[in-house]
Write a structure and sequence with these properties.
The complex is a heterodimer of chains A (387) and B (98). By secondary structure, chain A is mainly beta. Helix content of chain A is 1%, strand content 38%. In chain A, the strands form eight sheets. Chain A has a four-stranded antiparallel beta sheet with strand order 3-2-1-29, with no helix packed on it. The longest helix of chain A is centred in the N-terminal third of the chain and has 4 residues. With 98 residues, chain B is an alpha+beta fold. Chain B has a single domain, classed as Roll (Ubiquitin-like (UB roll)). Chain B is built from three helices and five strands. Chain B has a five-stranded mixed beta sheet, with helices on one face. Chain B is globular, with a radius of gyration of 12 Å. Chain B starts with a strand and ends in a 5-residue tail after the last strand. The chains are: A mainly beta (387), B alpha+beta (98). Chains A and B meet through strand 6 of A and helix 1 of B.
Chain lengths: 387, 98
């Protein structure tokens, strides 16, 4: 019997929700790291017991946590009891050390001047598809770091900021690498998305990066709607079987590319609004995608107080609302960019968390929904492991 | 021995209960106390001071003998009451306000 483990990052801690393959009865574990902001928790495909968590605080900065037993116990990498007893003595405590490579340089600031890059926090951790000790971290101010020792030390891949980083300018939500997609068919290819920065791709393992924004139009956000960088990309997603096909929820607009980002096409179609944050792909149907339309960038809640997931079975353009089990009145929550995920059971499960603290699950591809929990702190991120 | 009181979240992170007692070589300063603290509890590196510059994080405060020493030079000697252990050195998360 398969098991499902849902990893939830919230404003006040991490929670782990587990169920069997029926996905009807859930156990809730947490809060882990109570009182800290947990931006992201994600497990390794290569070793599902290996889980990384980004723990952060406006007071005390960034902490990386790691579990090697499926979330039962946690240590900052390099400080497990076994490692503390090692002949080398105490670890150096560098698991939370994110220092930009070389001279950090500057990016565009609110007043048009250049401003030094300043590390603030890790938004997203993406474990390697093949090696549990290797992972990537997307950080604010926008950059990507890599560990090859299980999170004990992190090194920047500075080529990303070389892709016109001096022109990136933070929005009100900050400027962060919030999405990292690893190409399962090409180990050298990685995609990242940056709020108020755009979308970028490397084909050489992270040494060099290029903007992949042709076709994006941001007429309300940028003076040049066709600019190469600066687009507020909220989220990108791919299906592992077709890594050249990407789907994007931009600030406004839902788009797709069929050639690894060389050209994007809008597929918002009949959505009631094409503003939103998350987007994800069905585990077994590469043309079935999900978004959560949000009324506008000025309001950040669902249209008409109705929480509706929209599903397209045609890769975009033709969308249907999914409402069964979701509140259809007086609902004014948001669903953040990293707060939607899918499992890989035969009947694909879709999950999302809200700023109101609910985590919803659909065990039938979106046809109907149930709340696993209703009263967590605001949900920042949701990831799913199919065990 | 120097008595150090950590804030709630950092006690949890360092897995300590109550005060931390540190043997700190003279001269006893904010910098030497933090150096010793971080050597004992490496997980605290980066939580109180920037990794690179060693500047105090903006919302971390240092109190001693009813004084806020956060803005004092980090290499200034701490009061005798701290050095002889009569008073604790308090590391505090600043009020959030709001």
């Amino acid at each position: 019997m398969s098991k499902i483990r849902v990893l939830v990052g919230t404003k006040k801690g991490a929670f782990i929700l587990t169920a069997d393959g029926q996905r009807k009865t859930w156990k809730v574990s947490g809060p882990h790291f109570a009182g800290w902001e947990i931006y992201h928790v994600k497990g390794s495909l290569a070793d599902p017991n290996r889980i990384y968590a980004s723990q952060t605080s406006g007071w005390f900065g960034q902490i990386i946590q790691r579990s090697d037993d499926g979330g039962r116990t946690w240590n900052t990498p390099g400080s497990s009891p076994e490692e503390l007893k090692s002949p080398e003595g105490f670890p150096k405590g560098e698991s939370n050390k994110f220092v930009y490579d070389g001279k950090a340089g500057t990016h565009k600031w609110y007043d048009g001047t250049q401003h030094p890059w300043e590390f603030k926090r890790v938004w997203h951790i993406e474990p390697s598809l093949t090696n549990p000790d290797t992972a990537y971290a997307g950080v604010e101010d926008a950059a990507i770091f890599k560990t090859t020792d299980g999170g004990k030390t992190w090194q920047e891949l500075p080529g990303l900021r070389g892709a016109k980083g001096h022109l990136w300018q933070p929005g009100a939500g900050g400027m962060a690498v919030h999405t990292i997609l690893l190409d399962p068919k090409n180990a050298k290819r990685i995609y990242v998305a940056i709020s108020a920065g755009g979308c970028f791709r490397t084909d050489d393992g992270g040494k060099t990066w290029k903007p992949i924004t042709r076709g994006l139009k941001s007429q309300f956000e940028l003076p040049d709607p066709d600019a190469e960088v600066g687009h507020c990309v909220h989220r990108i997603a791919l299906h592992p079987s077709r890594p050249d096909v990407l789907f994007m929820q931009k600030h406004w607009d839902v788009l797709r590319t069929d050639n690894a980002g060389e050209r994007w096409t809008e597929v918002s179609g009949n959505l009631p609004t094409d503003f939103g944050f998350p987007i994800d792909v069905h585990a077994h149907e590469p043309e079935t995608i999900f978004v959560v339309p949000i009324k506008s960038d000025s309001e950040h809640y669902p249209p008409d107080g109705k929480l509706r997931v929209y599903r397209s079975k045609t890769g975009g353009n033709e969308w249907e609302p999914l409402t069964k089990g979701l509140p259809q009145k007086d609902c004014y929550v948001n669903v953040l960019r990293d707060a939607m995920a899918v499992d890989t059971l035969d009947k694909c499960g879709i999950y999302f968390g809200t700023t109101g603290g609910q985590v919803y699950c659909s065990a039938n591809g979106g046809n109907s929904w149930n709340a696993i929990v209703r009263d967590l702190p605001a949900v920042y991120s949701v990831e799913v492991q199919t065990l | 021995m120097i008595r150090v009181v950590l804030p709630f979240h950092l006690r949890n992170l360092a897995r300590v209960n109550g005060e931390v007692l540190l043997e700190v070589a003279a001269p006893v300063t904010v910098c030497s106390v933090l150096d010793t603290l971080e050597a004992r509890y490496p997980v605290l590196r980066g939580t109180l001071r920037d990794h690179d510059t060693l500047k105090r994080r903006p919302y971390v405060r240092f109190f001693a003998c009813k004084e806020d020493l956060s803005l004092e030079p980090p290499d200034a000697p701490l009061p005798e009451e701290i050095v002889n252990g009569a008073e604790p050195f308090l590391i505090v998360g600043a009020m959030a306000g709001g």
